[in-house]
Amino acid sequence: MSQIFRILSLNLLLLLSFKAASFPSGSRSILRDISSSDNVVKPDYAVDLNITNFDSVLRDTPATFAIVEFFAHWCPACRNYKPHYEKVARLFNGPDAVHPGIVLMARVDCASKINNKLCDRFSISHYPMLFWGPPSKFVAGGWEPKEEKSEIRVIDDGRTAEHLLNWINKQLGSSYHLDDQKFENEHLPSNVSDPGQIARAVYDVEEATTIAFDIIFEHKMIKSETRASLIKFLQLLVAHHPSKRCRKGSAEVLVSFDDLCPPNEKLEALSNGKDMLGNFQICGKDVPRGYWMFCRGSKNDTRGFSCGLWVLLHSLSVRIEDGESQFAFTTICDFIHNFFICEECRQHFYKMCSSVDRPFDSSRDFVLWLWSAHNKVNERLMKEEASLGTDDPKFPKIIWPPRQLCSSCYLSDDQRDDGTSRVAWNKDEVYSFLTNYYGKTLASLYKEKGVLLSEVTDGAIEDLVASTNAVVVPVGAALAIALASCAFGALACYWRSQQKSRKPRRKPELR
């Protein structure tokens, strides 16, 4: 019996050897790839759109331009073109994009019945058909062959990956290559002298907000002694975050905070914040995106999160009213003290907070204090990074704002013996610059896209009133801050009136 089994096994091996030898060499290579444990199907980089998400994705993308391919899945030419399109999409799409935030590359399958009207809007006459334009122009828009002034254009020379990328380079004045790798950003232009670039920082503020909360959840930093600090910071975000979707997400967390993180739970339960709050997407389902725009450094390990967090703090400071200034100050100081994970930075910032010997009476004073604190941090890091060679050569630490952005902010600028500058500031001009730069200009991109409109949700006011038992500010203030996320324009007036009518607070004790 064993002899028969050996004979059968030998015959089987001979048969398999013969079959393998009869395959063409290319097929044998495919077999090796399939059998290899390292073989992983690569995901598509281009974003699949349909009638249900077409407008929302193109409206919300941070990219400056979009390419939309209209195709049919049954079309042989479309199937053959897909690898070419994916080679280019790899450069621009996804968290590992080589050149993120520039071009959104998407596709629509016109063979799917759900997309019939969408494909009709763009007068699709053949497959594949590619369009280029600002993302906002695709939203609720279309294309007609005889339309002369449309900002949506047909790409007439994109039949290979090389041709398509050359076409893109001509439009952008860029020199991208298909073999570009992620990313030492040697071609990144400095944005210091371009005040309009701050508008793109709205996306980085969303990114920084999401990452900050991810760090809190991941490192289980919600404890009995830090819980109130987090509630106060959420209240500040609900009222004054520059992004509407982050205001909305912060309100949702605040509404559910007592259920997610009960005040009387044991410390072990409180510290398990990832399980309780980690599923909240505080700035929406598409954030974090995995890359930076305004805050992108010329090296992978520079700028990024720290830059985004500073922009968030400045954007909050310029949006508060006079009566909120002390609340905002203590809230931000406590948040950094309890939740910023860099120990040296945390201690240095809180030391600056503790040196303040009187309450802030006006938002102007708080805006200027935060600006001054940021410059002190830059001065400290300037020296350390220069001595260690860890600075970003494209974005060195500087005293802010530079003369290129605000020459009127400078009364005089003298050089010290150690090579640093001693600036006499025109603080009225500095305040005017900061409120415009981190306020109006920062929000301008969203205003253009029309997503800063206020909205009132039925029942949201009642929900927010009862949202948390851990009131860490006076009831009227906490309520007004929470209300502001749901009817931001109208209810902000209520907040201001509450603050103006409140008696001055006693001098606080700073820890």
From TrEMBL:
Organism ancestry: Eukaryota, Viridiplantae, Streptophyta, Embryophyta, Tracheophyta
InterPro entries: ERV/ALR_sulphydryl_oxid_sf, ERV/ALR_sulphydryl_oxidase, Sulfhydryl_oxidase, Thioredoxin-like_sf, Thioredoxin_CS, Thioredoxin_domain
Pfam families according to UniProt: Evr1_Alr, Thioredoxin
PANTHER family according to UniProt: QUIESCIN Q6-RELATED SULFHYDRYL OXIDASE, SULFHYDRYL OXIDASE
Keywords: Disulfide bond, FAD, Flavoprotein, Glycoprotein, Membrane, Oxidoreductase, Redox-active center, Secreted, Signal, Transmembrane, Transmembrane helix
Extent of the signal sequence: 1-22
Domain Thioredoxin: 36-173
Domain of life, source organism: Eukaryota
Transmembrane segments: 471-495
Predominant location: secreted
Broad enzyme group: oxidoreductase
tRNA-binding is among the record's keywords: no
GO MF: flavin-dependent sulfhydryl oxidase activity; protein disulfide isomerase activity
Cofactor annotation: FAD
EC number: 1.8.3.2
Reactions mediated catalytically: 2 R'C(R)SH + O2 = R'C(R)S-S(R)CR' + H2O2
Cellular component terms (Gene Ontology): extracellular space; Golgi membrane
Ranges for domain ERV/ALR sulfhydryl oxidase: 298-400
Protein name as it appears in the record: Sulfhydryl oxidase
GO biological process, one term: protein folding
Subcellular localization(s) per the UniProt record: Secreted
